[in-house]
Design brief:
Layout (H helix, E strand, L loop, with lengths): L2 E5 L7 H8 L5 E6 L2 H14 L1 H4 L3 H21 L6 E5 L7 H7 L6 E5 L2 H14 L18 H10 L3 H14 L5 E5 H6 L1 H12 L42 H5 L1 H10 L1 H6 L3
Parallel strand pairs: 1-3, 1-4, 2-3, 4-5
Helix pairs in contact: 2-4, 6-7, 7-8, 7-12
Length: 272
């Protein structure tokens, strides 16, 4: 049975890059964006909605559910890979730490990639500009919605995927779940990949792997990005290297200041 670790990161923060670096380790199966969390939710929903479960002894049924969820998530990966370790990537694991902890047979370990929020929004804006032929419902000219970079940034800060992820991180910190997680800054990962991978292995309680090649990262995670729309680009750069901090050039000073105001706790917590 594989030991399963989790990744629950901010959007546009290098989560796919990290998965593919981890996949260089022959002992690790690193997933693309995973739907396993949704499967566990579906099981929990049916358990709570079905009269057949509710009509029986509650402790017995809850024990059964815990076993079903734990064995189910391990069974999923035991039928996919024979590698001893799995890293499941889903943005929802972090906010549902207590749910995961309630059924997983060992303490959950969750890696969270973060990035300067201004650069995340700048990355979203660049994806928007790169796809002029794509329909994006964020823009509605008749209602003057999303028609400027300032308006688009504000929408992204309040909705999926950035706003929801930001709200979740705030709740994670309030609930104290952050103490059980490892936060990795995208900026540090791309500048000091060796050191950051050592931190990750130490957190996972695994021996460091010395075979990582940060100049030749093969993309092993495969997914159809058309499913996710123009912001769901999961293609990686095969070389782990620093990217320019161009958020002011892309967004302008006023929008960057607004982002800092909206995400005050985030900037303070991660020292951006």
């Amino acid at each position: 049975m594989s030991t399963i670790f989790f990744q629950s990161s901010m959007p546009r923060a290098g989560s796919t890059l990290l998965q593919n670096v981890l996949a260089q380790n022959p002992d690790i199966y690193a997933t693309p964006t995973s739907g396993v969390l949704e499967l566990t939710f579906a099981a929990r929903h049916m358990f709570n909605e079905s009269n057949e479960f509710q009509a029986q002894d509650s402790k017995t049924m809850e024990d059964g559910l815990v076993g079903f969820l734990n064995e189910g998530i391990h069974g999923w990966y035991d039928n996919i890979t024979d590698k001893p370790y799995v890293v499941d990537k889903s943005r929802g694991w972090g906010i549902h730490y207590d749910f995961l902890d309630a059924f997983l047979e060992y303490e959950p370990k969750i890696i969270c990639m973060v990035r300067d929020l201004r650069q995340i929004i700048a990355s979203m804006e660049k994806k928007f500009r790169e796809n002029p032929l794509a329909h994006d419902p964020i823009v509605n000219w008749s209602e003057m919605s999303g028609t400027t970079v300032e308006k688009r940034a504000d929408v992204w800060l309040q909705t999926q995927p950035v706003g929801l992820a930001l709200e979740r991180f705030g709740e994670i910190i309030k609930r104290g779940w952050d103490k059980h997680m490892l936060f990795v800054k995208f900026e540090d990962f791309t500048k000091y990949p060796d050191e950051e991978m050592d931190r990750i292995y130490d957190y996972l309680e695994l021996d460091s792997y010395t075979g990582h090649d940060f100049n030749k990262v093969e993309q092993t995670t495969k997914e159809d990005d058309t499913v996710y729309g123009i912001y769901g680009d999961h293609k990686i750069n095969p070389v782990v290297s620093e990217l320019p901090q161009d958020y002011i050039d892309v967004l302008g000073v006023k929008t960057c200041d607004h982002i800092k105001e909206v995400g005050q706790f985030y900037f303070k917590y991660f020292n951006y």
